[in-house]
């Protein structure tokens, strides 16, 4: 398999240039993961605003964000989601941003482009850094412009090459910075970080082979049947690797850029099909662009009990459907005490209870889509 071929330093350097050209940003650093990239940025800017200790994050999102915030010695502050693009609830965000707010992290969850104009204004008014979590949105653009990529509109953005991402190679992440000054400061810290060791390279080589096997579209069902593999789960991990990343992995990521646009076309086509065939099942309020290349198609169902039955049957048939994150961040094990603030985040709770994410990757066939739709119709008619 070509993905396991040895990658030279020259290939790595070419990959770095290819990624810079693709994103249209010279200020790029490669790290061991997306959360390591976020950690590096927060560590960098926290030295410039030492009195600012808080970072605002969505109440419903990947717990890896909280890992990075805590590891940077900062305090995560939750803000409820809206049901339109799963970003922040605007009125609540205005209340949550204050004089101690160092950064606000906008999350383009499932590749959904979050409207950020108002958030940018709030950040400017409060001397707060705007960070875009584009871990699930590499290559996607804002629909209004089509030429501005997600992850490049804020002061910084980060991407992930972990499992299930647009470029999925099991390892690595990218930090992008808008300011040359802050890029230079980040490089100073970056150069003091350890690089990937030879042992890490060998382990990555072996892990990637296993991952390539299980990530084949026809085997997506297997991790769900073997929980001990934990190939499809996301859990809160307070400790994580903060190295500069394995060169072999980044070289591979650069080579995979040649197929990203073709993959986006496939995801957009599958998303269009779901949008046309799932009318009436989607929770009122969510705003989805009909032919947008989402990473996964988010279906928010009106009836929670119906959703649970549909999800159970879809997972039993190995369709690749998931429930995504099971709870708001403040209700996750190991985080409930850390994030306890006495609040209930109603929209985050509604999203976690009603969401089903459907596969849109290039391996999804017309038959796969029809099978998913057949299950949804059957269960709906039974109930």
Outline? globular
Could you state the CATH homologous superfamily of the largest domain? Type I PLP-dependent aspartate aminotransferase-like (Major domain)
Query: What number of structural domains do the residues give?
Result: 2
> How many β-strand runs?
9
Strand content: 5-15%
Number of discrete helical segments: 13
Radius of gyration, in angstroms, nearest whole number: 20 Å
What order do the helices and strands come in, and which of them pair?
Layout: H1 9-23, E1 28-31, H2 34-46, E2 54-58, H3 64-71, E3 75-79, H4 90-96, E4 101-107, H5 117-125, E5 129-133, E6 156-160, E7 173-177, H6 180-190, H7 198-214, H8 222-225, H9 247-255, H10 260-277, E8 296-300, H11 304-316, H12 346-354, E9 355-359, H13 366-382
Helix pairs in contact: 1-9, 2-3, 2-6, 11-13
Describe the structure.
The protein has helices at residues 9-23, 34-46, 64-71, 90-96, 117-125, 180-190, 198-214, 222-225, 247-255, 260-277, 304-316, 346-354, 366-382; strands at 28-31, 54-58, 75-79, 101-107, 129-133, 156-160, 173-177, 296-300, 355-359. The strands form 2 sheets. It has a 7-stranded mixed β-sheet with strand order 1-7-6-5-4-2-3, sandwiched between helices. It has 383 residues and is α/β, with parallel strands linked by helices. The N and C termini lie far apart (47 Å). It has 2 domains: 2-190, 3-Layer(aba) Sandwich (Aspartate Aminotransferase, domain 2); 260-382, Aspartate Aminotransferase, domain 1 (Alpha-Beta Complex), CATH 3.90.1150. Helix 1 (9-23) crosses helix 9, helix 2 (34-46) runs parallel beside helix 3 (64-71) and helix 11 packs across helix 13. The longest helix has 18 residues, at 260-277.
């Amino acid at each position: 398999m070509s993905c396991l071929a040895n990658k030279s330093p020259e290939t790595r350097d070419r990959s770095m240039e290819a990624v810079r050209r693709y994103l249209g940003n010279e200020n790029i650093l490669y790290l061991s993961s997306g959360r390591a990239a976020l950690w590096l940025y927060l560590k960098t800017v926290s030295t410039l605003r030492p009195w600012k200790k808080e970072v605002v994050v969505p109440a419903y999102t990947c717990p890896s964000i909280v890992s990075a915030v805590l590891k940077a010695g900062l305090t995560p502050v939750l803000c409820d989601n809206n049901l339109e693009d799963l970003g922040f609830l605007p009125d609540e965000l205005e209340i949550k941003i204050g004089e101690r707010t160092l950064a606000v992290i906008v999350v383009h969850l499932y590749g959904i482009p979050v409207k950020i104009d108002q958030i940018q204004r709030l950040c400017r008014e409060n001397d707060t850094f705007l960070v875009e979590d584009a871990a699930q949105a590499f290559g996607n653009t804002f629909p209004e412009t089509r030429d501005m990529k997600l992850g490049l509109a804020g002061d910084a953005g980060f991407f992930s090459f972990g499992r299930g991402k647009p470029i999925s190679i099991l390892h690595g992440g990218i930090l992008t910075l808008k300011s040359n000054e802050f890029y230079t400061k980040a490089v100073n810290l970056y150069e003091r970080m350890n690089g990937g060791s030879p042992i890490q390279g060998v382990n990555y080589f072996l892990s990637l082979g296993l991952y390539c096997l299980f990530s084949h579209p026809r085997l997506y069902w297997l991790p769900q049947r073997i929980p001990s593999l934990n190939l499809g789960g996301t859990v809160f991990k307070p400790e994580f690797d903060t190295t500069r990343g394995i060169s072999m992995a980044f070289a591979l990521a650069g080579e995979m850029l040649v197929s990203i646009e073709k993959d986006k076309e496939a995801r957009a086509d599958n998303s269009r099909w779901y949008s046309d065939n799932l009318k009436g099942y989607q929770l009122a309020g969510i705003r989805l662009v009909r032919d947008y290349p989402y990473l996964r198609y988010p279906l928010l169902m009106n009836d929670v009990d119906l959703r649970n039955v549909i999800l159970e049957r879809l997972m039993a048939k190995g369709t690749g459907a998931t429930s995504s994150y099971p709870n708001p961040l403040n209700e996750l094990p190991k985080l409930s005490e850390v994030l306890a603030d006495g609040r209930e985040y109603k929209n985050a709770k509604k999203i976690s209870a009603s969401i089903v994410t459907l596969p849109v990757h290039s391996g999804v066939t017309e038959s796969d889509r029809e099978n998913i739709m057949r299950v949804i119709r059957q269960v709906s008619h039974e109930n």
